[in-house]
Amino acid sequence: MWESFISSYMELNYSLSEKDFLNFQLYYASQSDKFLSQRNRDRIRLPGLSLLFGVVLLFDDRSSVWAYILIISSFLFFILYKWWSAWFYKRFYKRQVKENMKDDLPYLIKLFLDNDVIEIDSKKGHRRLNVRDIEYISETAEYFYIIINQIYIIIPRSQISQIKIFRDQLEKYKEDSRIPYLKKLDWKWK
Q: Among the CATH numbers 1.10.1660.10, 3.40.190.10, 2.60.40.10, 2.30.29.30, which is that of 3-17+106-184?
């Protein structure tokens, strides 16, 4: 890992691991309104179905053990859903990352940041992206994410030796091109 700085030009060389891709998937999902509303609906829907079946069985046969099991499990599931769904989706995304990135890890990236362009060199080739096309920049406690036209640039903080200079470059993008800069330093997967 090395970096060079020449005026407003910055070069980063770093590698991404399975953990880095997993954390990005979890972060991106947690920022999606559609994903969050689906999780909220499922928190009501799944225990609701269990409760409904339990009540139906209870009216059918008051001494049915299954009715009581379904009713109690619906309340337990409603209470425990937040932790269960966090575990479930983390496992789901981990499996997805493992499957899609198994041959590419560690994923080596050379990133060039200039005033007007960002260039990326990786196993998948070379891309030259205009800074004005950045949708947003997001900063968490462990990562910087730059989103440009469905291209996701993941930059682990731990692999940036000159973090202040790097952050200044991102702030410059924010000011010059009016790019949203989201600081979510307390973000954690829940």
A: 2.30.29.30
